[in-house]
Design a protein that fits this description.
Length: about 300
């Protein structure tokens, strides 16, 4: 595997993340335009009429998406820690962890985040929070007990990089976009199932078109979301190597984590993707089917380790 250098890797991953994030609203607007174009009378498709209907409906679409964002933003930020069962870890309970986190924060000029613990013997960790008051690093009991100081420091540096790069915000935004299409697809499927498509032939055609476009939007936005998540993991690995000046420590930690990363309390994939290693990816990790990698939230851990060993 060719290593392109830390600065180039960070630059490339940032550019890719920005491009992918910009694609979300373009997908929404493009599918809205395609919908108003396709629901015109058969054999009478007109671009000018489609453009007029699109511009007329655009303010309502923007308002609906904006309202969805406000509601989903606040529900997601509070849901993450509740879904993982993480609880505050006091300094008296574990001075070792506090010393490692404080030393990394001082050396990198970062404010000290909260520290939580997940009462699970498996090895995993995640970062959460959208501002200085809510930034949190959560570590499992297993990862605290089974990693040495250098490995644990590297994992903490990985999570601190997520906080410094505001990755939690970025991932929540991508999850919300996917949720919009997931909700529309489910609602339309139920409409077809329980009402036969909405009544007459015209209504049925509109529902079918909407369902197909919503499903397409869900598919595309999911791919964008997974791609953003993978890029941010590479970024956090690079940030850890820079912060600790010990990339081999993170490589060693990832090897141990990959062998036992299943946190029992985590059932949802949008929460599992917040962790340093997504245990749910292992259920669908491709062996020879390369397209399957498009639906993984994390890069293959073997590739992450190989890159770290080339620093």
């Amino acid at each position: 595997m060719k290593y392109t250098g830390l600065s180039r890797q960070i630059w490339n991953n940032n550019i890719k993340s920005v491009v992918l994030l910009i694609l979300f609203p373009f997908v929404i607007m493009g599918l809205v335009w395609l919908f108003v174009f396709l629901v015109q009378p058969l054999n009478d498709y007109r671009l000018d009429r489609a453009n007029h209907l699109f511009l007329t409906s655009l303010p309502w679409v923007i308002a609906g998406v904006g309202l969805w964002f406000v509601i989903a933003w606040f529900s997601h930020t509070g849901m993450i820690e509740r879904a993982t069962g993480s609880v505050p870890l006091s300094r008296k309970e574990n001075k070792r962890i506090y010393n490692l986190v404080e030393n990394l924060c001082i050396s990198s000029g970062m404010p000290m985040p909260k520290i939580n613990v997940i009462n699970d013997d498996s090895l995993n960790a995640f970062a959460s929070g959208i501002n200085t008051k809510t930034f949190t690093v959560s570590l499992s009991r297993g990862i605290i007990d089974k990693l040495n100081d250098e490995e644990l420091e590297a994992v903490i540096a990985h999570e601190l990089t997520h906080i410094r790069n505001r990755d939690v915000r970025l991932l929540i935004v991508s999850i919300i976009f996917v949720g919009i299409f997931a909700f529309l697809t489910e609602a339309l499927v139920r409409s077809v199932r329980f009402t036969g498509g909405g009544g007459g032939k015209k209504d049925g055609r509109v529902v079918v078109i909407a369902l197909m476009l919503a499903a397409l939007g869900y598919f595309l936005s999911s791919i964008f979301r997974f791609a953003i998540s993978r890029q941010r993991e590479y970024m956090a690995d690079a940030g850890s190597a820079t912060m600790t000046r010990n990339p081999l420590a993170l490589a060693s930690a990832l090897e141990k984590i990959s062998a036992d990363s299943q946190i029992e309390a985590v059932k949802r994939n949008d929460i599992a993707q917040m962790f340093i290693d997504n245990p749910q990816d292992k259920k669908v990790r491709p062996v020879s089917f390369s397209i399957g990698a498009l639906f993984m939230t994390h890069p293959p851990i073997e590739k992450r380790i190989a890159l770290l060993r080339q620093f």
